[in-house]
Amino acid sequence: MTQQQYVLSPDHDAHIASAIGKFFRRIIPMLALMLIVNQIDRANIGFVKAELQTDAGISAAAFGLGAGLFFIGYALFEVPSNMMLKKLGARVWLTRIMITWGMVVVLTGFVSTPLHFYLLRFLLGVAEAGFFPGVLFYFRQWVPNAWRGRATAMVLSATASAFLFSGPLTGAILMMHDVGGIAGWKWVMFVEGGGSMVIGLLAAFVLVSKPQGAKWLSDAEKQALAQQLALEDDAREEHAVKHGRWGLISDRSLLSYCLIFFTMTMTGYTLVFWLPQIIQRIQGFNSFETGLLTAVPWLFAIVALFLLGKATDRYRDKLDKGLGIAMLIAACGTFMATLGTPWFGFVAMIVACIGSKVSAAFFWPMPQSELPASIAAPGIALINSIGNLGGFFAPTVFGYLEMHTGSTTGGLYALTSVSVVTGLYLLLRRKPVPPAFGHTERNHVRQSSH
What we know:
With 450 residues, the chain is mostly helical. It has one domain: Up-down Bundle (Growth Hormone, Chain: A). Helix content is 78%, strand content 0%. Helix 7 (131-140) packs antiparallel against helix 18 and helix 13 packs parallel to helix 16.
């Protein structure tokens, strides 16, 4: 169906802008909080590594394997989880995910053997599967193209800001060691996992699955938003007809997205798991102070995301080039971390974190805008699940190299090579130019930039 077949009101653009403004004010803060807690629960294992290894008898290689097993469970259940979200709605499914992963984090506080660690990390991946791609699919049901890059940048800023809180928070909880006769790392799991369950319950009262169910939108805003989203879905489906549903899933562009995201997660999650250990080379800091220092690189990443959020909407035809540049910046950071003093390595981690997070801001608007509605849920989940296997591969190899060489240098060299190859591929490849903005979408791009 074309735009001419819809009867758009004279105030269509104004109603869209008003509806999206309400969504940003009412829903985005809760999604941001959920993603912050999500990242804290993922990353806390890196902060308790030393204590957990001592109490449970886990070697560096076993820790790397266990940290990576999370992504096996995550990948296996990612697509089914997103299909359930499409069926049951974001309000039900995203809150279910959050409550169950909180339960698994609490159970991790009872780990006493490597086998327990492996099992619970795998189950954490199963419980959390579909959460981030579910948020992206949720945007497909609410946010038109002209605002989606900005919305994605906002939630990615939340995942980065998690590391502003996770370091100091986890460091402070670790200082509760022996309170009540409980080890500090156990307190981390009990407090942070319990917090996830509480916030999951609160989210059930805030999230609204689709615009039609939002009591805080006027009828005119609901109609305008439904019309705009339908117009954009129709445009994507016109492209999908050429390939067929299953043909598009096996299309080379989708495979390319999976491989690109695989290399991105290799860098991203290695930074998450090993950044605290890299910073611990700087002498004279306790666990809380180390946590504060760990937050600094992510603060710089948040600033970069804030500055580039609107650009991802305005320059959608150049997103792949921006992604290539961001990955080369991440490569420079990981390479520089192998040189010089510990403080120089810390500065290098700032560069790597900026490149890693900005990469995601350039990457996700591409499949979100290009995948047709008929396969959006499984398509986004497939990219995320296959790509996230990089989160299994990188920590496992990194831990193996650290155990056999006694240094993080080999792992950082490997990450540098992967990022350089992917970045150059994106800069040098020739990609078809996307269709030009229609009149309505050009207006929306201008409005979203203000």
